[in-house]
Amino acid sequence: MGRLFKYLGWLIGLVVLLVVAAVVVLPMVVDPNDFKGQIISRVEQETGRSLKIDGDLKLSVFPWLGIEIAGLELGNARGFGPEPFAMVKRAAVRVKLMPLLSRQLEVDTIGLDGLVLNLSQAKDGRSNWADLEQRGEAPTPESEGDSGGEKSAGRLSSLAIGGVNISDAKVSWDDRRSGQQFIIDRFNLKSGVIAIDRPVDLQVAFRLDSSEPPLEAEIDMAGQVTLDQPAERLDIKGLQLKLVAQGAALPAGKAEAELASNVSLTLDGRLLEVRELQLRSGELQLSGDLKGQDLNTSPTFSGNFRLAEFDLRQWLIDQGVQVPVTADPAVLTRFSAQAVLKVKAGATRIESLEMQLDDTRLSGSVKLQGAAVGFNLKLDEIDLDRYLPPQKEPKEAKPKTASSPAVAGGTGKDEALMPVETLRQLNLDGVLSIGQVKIMKLLAEQIDLTVKAKDGRLTLDKQIKKFYAGSYKSSLGLDVRGKAPLIKVDTVGSGIAIGPLLKEISGEDRLTGKGRFDAKLNTRGNSIESIKAALGGKLAFRFEDGAVKGFNLARTIREAKARLKGKPLPVSDEPVQTDFSEISGSAVIRKGVLDNRDLLAKSPYLRVTGAGKVNLVQETLDYTAKVVIVHTAKGTGGKDLKELEGIPIPIHLTGSYLSPSLDIEWGEVLTETQKARLEKKKEKYQQKLEKKLEKKLFKLFN
User: Fold this and answer.
1) pTM score, two decimals?
2) Which CATH number describes the domain made up of 253-389?
3) Between 655 and 15, whose confidence is greater?
């Protein structure tokens, strides 16, 4: 028994001696650089690419079995130029020797310094790495013959890596089909100890430089990564990402953002979860959760997001965006939003949308599918005048004549009104309901807007249930498929108090009354002048129990009569207005010229008819109104107009329709007056003859 232990001792000592000899002698006897040629030849045989190893190969055996390589360069695929596919300045990996005997893999920190990777795609769609993928996927006879038991026998019982350290790496991408190019430069990755089912600290930083779109960005990322092999699941806890970017591709030319979240991802792309998302960019703070499924087949996403209230105006200024000057400087200061996001089958739905801008709340849903946009939204109330530019003091307008219309030369009337190219691309189908809106001082309530746009055609239907004591409906059709936009308008207003409406539009209190109007108009063009010049259609109106303010027709006639006779102007305290019980009319418009033949206005004392034309292009009119005094009273002229009862008084309006010249054609009035007098004399003479004849007949028969 003693000899047995003695022989075993010698055997163990011999093994130890051999191991020590191998550790000491092997690196001295074996030079890995002697195998460079074989390595290069083998790589070229397997990949069809050239390989260069300019640096030395260094080998270590105990206690770490490792190799270090420097100056490595792998050639590019055929047809992609002489630039190398990949270059490595230095790479090193070491494996602890003794744990391998018990199928335990303990790896020291894997180091990779100065990696350069040039990725490219040709115009025909080929990539410069596709050939490597194809070779890597081809099974070897040995792998095909392996049994399940043999595979199981070769599996590792544990894996531990001291860490990964990638420094100063560079990846470039050149897509020759789209012209897109970008470079990931100064890429650095550092990890903690990597072990199966144990969290790993990870830090990544790199610089992105893109030419299309033009963008430069610095990105820093950190988090704790856990790989659950049995569940094939990757978890990133405490993800922190910081972005600093600038470039013309960004709305403000620059952007800074910080993101924090917890992320879970299955390796087969079946499930993605982003929890406790926090995105911050200046004062903007977005929070939420996102879940994705079937990312590799038919991706679907769902999530909830909330944008905390912040000062939108100040945030835009901080981002370098020029904020338009508004009539109310306090607007755009309070903005918040929240919504539910759903993405499925290429369609994106934004549901349960709630947005708050200053004092206005918007709610509803939006659907996006490709270029198509659908929506169903409700807005409570908004005063758009607060968001418009401040009103400028009106300048004194220079008088215009019919021979010199304002059609060009700095007036802005020839400027394009509509972005035609943008309208041609619109694909909209939606409804917007508004409780109350104020714009250009006009107030409308209970509004329903329906908009549809596709293939260069747009329709906008509007219904206002409460509009200046009445209601209003309109339909706008726009066709921008041709060279010049075609416009059609069909509008009806009923029960409308015209006085307050016109006062809000023009700022002048010129007309009162309540009634209806309708119009069917069509035109062509994309400037004020072209639209007016091509305007055509029909319109009609009828208003009751009102007055034309700023103009007392009876007083004007009395004053004109006094001037004609050389008498002093009569003194009157009457209001400067012409009352009417009814005013109505219709018109036909052709090429910007409005032709009216049936104006009718009635009052207890007057009847007015009118006919004439209004040139909307020249902004002039040639119109004749005929006034008939049907009854006189002290308040409307008394005995001064008594002799004009029943006589048509023509009033000719010419010049600018904003301030027309007025001319009463007294010659025609006098002619009619004389006719009336002759008729009266004739009637009296006839009455006398009849009386004489009656007397003679009486004497004759008695």
Assistant:
1) 0.70
2) 2.60.450
3) 655
